[in-house]
Design a protein that fits this description.
alpha/beta, 7 helices
Length: 209
C-alpha cells in the first residue's frame, strides 16, 4: 500500500481515536536519531515475494494453530514470545515495541528482522531502537527520509499490508482473534477491541488471499 492510498485511512483513524498527527511526526523524527543503521526495505523481498507468508497474531488460539504455519513467518509483536517458547524463530517481526523487549531482542539475535513502527503513543519506547540490529522503521504518518509506510494500523494488519506490498504468493493468518484480545496489564481492553475492529477492516479491504 502506498502512502496516497493509506493517508485517507490514517486520517479516519486519527479522528476515531483522537490521535495527534503532529505527535506522530515528532516520534518519527526522534526514532531516526536512535536508528544508527537500518537495512534496506528491499531485503524483505527475498522473504516475501512469490512466497507463502504466515502472519502470526497473539490471539488465544495461536498455540493451537502453530501446526498451520508454513513458509515465511511474520510475527505480530507479542506473538513472538509464544513462538519462541515453541522453538519457532520468525523471519520478520512487526512491532511498536510494546511487547516483551527481551524476547524481541532474543529473536533479533537469532536472525529475525524487526520492522519497528513509530507513532505518538510509543515515544517512551523508542530508546530501545538502538539495541537492535537488522531492522527498519515504519511510521504511522507520512514517510520521509529512511522511514517507510506500507500501510496498516496494528502490528497484525500492518504485517498483512507488508506481505501484500511485497507480493506474497499467499497470506495465511495464524492465531488471529479479532473478537477477544488478550488481557494485558496497563492496556485498555475496550481500546484494544476497537483497534482490532480496524485491523479486521483493513485486512478484509485488502482482500485476504
Amino acid at each position: 500500500m502506498e502512502w496516497e492510498e493509506w493517508e485517507p485511512i490514517y486520517k479516519k483513524i486519527l479522528q476515531d481515536f483522537g490521535y495527534d498527527e503532529e505527535k506522530d511526526k515528532e516520534a518519527s523524527k526522534l526514532a531516526l536519531k536512535y536508528a544508527k543503521k537500518q537495512i534496506e526495505a528491499n531485503v524483505l523481498k527475498k522473504f516475501i515475494e512469490n512466497r507463502i507468508v504466515s502472519i502470526c497474531g497473539a490471539g488465544k488460539n495461536l498455540e493451537k494453530e502453530l501446526k498451520n504455519i508454513e513458509g515465511t513467518i511474520i510475527s505480530a509483536d507479542e506473538a513472538t514470545s509464544i513462538l519462541l517458547k515453541n522453538n519457532i524463530v520468525p523471519h520478520i517481526i512487526t512491532t511498536d515495541l510494546d511487547g516483551n523487549i527481551e524476547d524481541l531482542l532474543e529473536a533479533n539475535k537469532k536472525g529475525s528482522i524487526l520492522i519497528i513502527h513509530v507513532h505518538g503513543d510509543n515515544i517512551q519506547s523508542l530508546k530501545h531502537i538502538s539495541l537492535f540490529k537488522n531492522f527498519l522503521l515504519t511510521t504511522q504518518s507520512k514517510p520521509f527520509d529512511k522511514l517507510h509506510n506500507f500501510g496498516g494500523f496494528t502490528d497484525g494488519d500492518r504485517a498483512y499490508c507488508i506481505a501484500k506490498h511485497f507480493n506474497a504468493k499467499k497470506i495465511k493468518l495464524v492465531g488471529f482473534n479479532f473478537e477477544e484480545p488478550r488481557k494485558k496489564e496497563g492496556k485498555d481492553l475496550k481500546i484494544k477491541k476497537r483497534k482490532l475492529e480496524w485491523a479486521k477492516k483493513i485486512i478484509r479491504n485488502g482482500n485476504l488471499y
